[in-house]
């Protein structure tokens, strides 16, 4: 079983419960900023050039999402994963408790507007189904605040972007991987919480797959 945490800097973090993989979304972010800037120069958003830019941006984004979903499913097939547990981002664009639109920062708001999380989940679902892998959506509530090793929850544990430190058991983890492992544990509890002495270095040092524009696929960072 594997858990998938979707986000901004890393479009996807995948935990296999003993190893982990990050899929940065840098290439997609670069496209969003580039095409937004180019379209702004068109003046008329309904012009032929603006329409061409929109079509090209959509095509590149769709290809990225296809390549990413394919890469994750291939990793699962290689490891014999039967179920993918994905954090549900259905309410990520919803208003906050006060009724105001959620503010994710200037870059975050732009990214969330452009990134098709629903589209990605749909692609992941049908690619996984073709390989006999089930996909389950679960709530992401508290998955970024809880330690995946001991279960302790504290708002202050995510000490900085990308780093998670548990003051209770002193686990140090990549924050997105910690979230992905918490998502996985919502369906299959980890042996890491049974009090055993398990190596959790994989939480802090995930493998990284980068999008290779020249090949249109994701590949290990060291190969690029």
Automatic annotation (TrEMBL):
InterPro entries: Cas12f1-like_TNB (IPR010095), RNA-guided_DNA_endo/Transpos (IPR051399), Transposase (IPR001959). It comes from the Archaea. One of its GO terms (molecular function) is DNA binding. Transmembrane segments: none annotated. Residues 117-183 form the Cas12f1-like TNB domain. One of its GO terms (biological process) is DNA recombination. Residues 1-90 form the Probable transposase IS891/IS1136/IS1341 domain. Keywords: DNA recombination, DNA-binding, Transposition. In the C-terminal section; belongs to the transposase 35 family. This is Transposase, IS605 OrfB family, central region. It comes from Halogranum amylolyticum.
């Amino acid at each position: 079983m594997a858990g998938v945490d979707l986000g901004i800097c890393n479009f996807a973090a995948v935990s296999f419960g003993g190893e982990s993989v990050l899929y940065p979304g840098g290439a997609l972010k670069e496209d969003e900023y580039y095409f937004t800037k180019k379209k702004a120069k068109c003046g008329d958003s309904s012009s032929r050039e603006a329409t061409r830019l929109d079509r090209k941006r959509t095509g590149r984004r769709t290809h990225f999402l296809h390549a990413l979903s394919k890469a994750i499913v291939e990793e699962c097939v290689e490891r014999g994963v039967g179920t993918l547990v994905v954090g549900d981002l259905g309410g990520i664009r919803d208003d906050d408790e006060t009724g105001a639109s959620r503010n994710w920062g200037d870059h975050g708001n732009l990214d969330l507007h452009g990134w098709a999380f629903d589209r990605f989940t749909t692609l992941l679902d049908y690619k996984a189904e073709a390989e006999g892998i089930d996909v389950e959506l679960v709530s992401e509530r508290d998955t970024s605040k809880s330690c995946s090793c001991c279960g302790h929850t504290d708002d202050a544990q995510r000490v900085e972007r990308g780093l998670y430190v548990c003051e209770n058991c002193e686990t140090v983890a990549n924050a997105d991987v910690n979230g992905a492992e918490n998502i996985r544990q919502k369906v299959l509890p980890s042996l890491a919480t049974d009090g055993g002495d398990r190596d959790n270095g994989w939480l802090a040092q995930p493998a990284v797959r980068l999008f290779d524009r020249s090949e249109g696929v994701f590949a290990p960072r060291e190969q690029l």
